[in-house]
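Priority: low. Protein: ABC transporter permease. Input follows.
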Amino acid sequence: MNALKLYALLIKASVRSRMQYKLNFLLSSFFACLMYALEFSVIALILAKFGALEGWSLPEVAYLYGVIILAHTIYRIFASDVHRLENYFVNGELDQLLIRPLPVLLALMSQNFSMQAGQFVQSFAVLVFAISSLLGSETVGWIIVPETVFAVLCGAVILFSIGLATATVGFWTMRINELQNLTEDASRNAALYPLDVFPGWLKTFLLTVIPVGFVNYVPALYTVRGVGGPWLLAATGAFALLFLAASLLFWRYGVTKYQSTGS
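Result:
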């Protein structure tokens, strides 16, 4: 509990320092929102041209988009520097975290608390559009709202676990940016679309090796399309917890293998 209180204080200090430059915060939030809006516009234009993607309509694809971008935003808000761990290896800054009076991972997560307001607002707006468009269909009722909250939170845990496992590889390789481009960025971009549009081997890859499919596709099968049953949401939650536990164990093992740049 003391470590968590210290973590909260460090986050508060990080937020306070960032808010010293309010104009920069507003501008960066606006341009981030605009960038993600353009990204979704490309998907909407594709669907306007072809009508549907393997039977998935625009509101259904918007749901997939909103869930994974919102989950990704929550992950990056609370653990943005997990994605920047290579800088800590190369510059020797991880040594400073090792001597702090709290776990290394919490110290890392508190370094640069990222207030991704633009991404949050845009992804939330897309999700509201998707749910409001889907409500009233045969398979969608108001229960989709708590189900979506659950899916987003589980998705944030899964994306954090993917990022943490990838970052841990850096304890052996030091350089991990290219690997992160694959496991975090490329896989997230692929999951913006229904996995049904991909070849069987790639769909399996995105459900097992880099399991981004569990962030939005698997929950959406039930919440949006009525496929399967509530067990799909339960399976998503169980998978998120198991994957998080495995990633934390891998991280703890990786920390024991760290060699300082000065050693």
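Residues 2-256 form one domain. The mean pLDDT is 86.
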